[in-house]
Amino acid sequence: DLGVSTSQIGFLVSVWAATVVLTAIPMSLTTRRFSRKSILVVAVALFTASNVMAALAPNYETLLISRVVGGLGNGMFWMIATGYVTTMLPSKWRSRGFLFISAGANLAFIAGLPLGSALAAVSDWRSGFLIMSALTIGASVGLYFLLVPVPNPHSEGAAKKNSVLSDSTFPMVLLGVSGVFLVVGGGNIFYPYIAPFLIEVSHFTPLTVAAPLAAYGIGGTIGIVVAERLGRKPENLSRNISLSILYMAAMMVIVNLVAPSTIAVTVAVALWSLGFAVTEPLFGQYIMELSSPRLRDFAGAMRTTAWNLGIGGGSFVGGLLLVPLGIAALPYIGASVLVAGSMVALIARRRERALAAP
Question: Which listed residue, 10, 62, 174, 307, has the most CB atoms within 10 A of its CB?
């Protein structure tokens, strides 16, 4: 009812991602002295504010500003959340903590679009934002009263201006973040175009393509459980990450090879999603395990920045190559980028061993 085009609506997603990329790292530096718990509560409160603004937006400009506010909350939340779990839980329970964080994000990704579309069909798009406002208010209250506070490693003593770069764990964290960028970027060279691929190459209809897309969601849910089990031994994280990336690359290629069979491609899409759902939480846990306590918030900000850059960069590269090479070429290009990501994990493993050697 705002009288805008589909492309303008799509631009709102880009504004959200750009806000995260531009603000996550600066926010991690400017909020270092504040309570970690308070930052999480404020982050969810920003989600609430953005949803209320969107629900009541009288024009497109207000809706655009609401996405900026939401992007700020997103960047603030993810720069703290993974480090919070790492600090709060003993090593043997951290993989389970990452399971719950990843499960929440994955289920939101899987269920958000169909539920939002169904709600818009029976009501209007504003009602979805109002419901999200109510849910995030509840989340803010729950965090405030139930979340256990964790120590702030920056609360004592003045931090040096170069403390991030001079931290001994920074090079390994940077290596891990580079891997996140390659994995997310490689996957998103193909993922945004999976529905057109299935319609064009596998001959699904716009209606029946829902089946392999649902399989993708199911595979991702199973993958998170697998990631929790693989994450129980932190000493094997870099090896498991490298193997899971190679598995993911292989499944992307297999999706293309079995595309003529609707049943086989549906199974392959689910197995590909499983690989991604295993890899990304393991990378997040790995980065937190590598980080010193003082670097964890900054590492979390770097990770969410790399994640959003990977989404934007991967989909952009896929779009550039779509016309000259054809949609069937995208899985091979994405897989090659993933192989590079697995090499990063192998390099990290070798550096780990070198640093551990007497």
Answer: 307
Residue 91 confidence (pLDDT): 73
Q: How far is Cα 192 from Cα 287, in angstroms, rounded to an integer?
A: 26
Contacts of 304 (CB under 8 A, 6+ apart): 20, 24, 74, 75, 78, 79
Confidence of residue 80 (pLDDT cuts 50, 70, 90): confident
Domain covering 163-356: architecture: Up-down Bundle (1.20)
The CATH number corresponding to 6-146 among 3.40.50.720, 3.50.50.60, 1.20.1250.20, 3.40.50.10900 equals: 1.20.1250.20
Residue whose C-alpha is closest to residue 9's, from 66, 79, 49:
66
pLDDT at 184 over 80: yes
- What is the pLDDT, as a whole number, of residue 158? 45
pLDDT of residue 294: 82
Say how far apart CA 25 and CA 70 lie, in whole Å: 16
| Domain edges within the chain | 6-146, 163-356
Position 14 scores a pLDDT of 78
Average pLDDT on 148-174 reads: 72
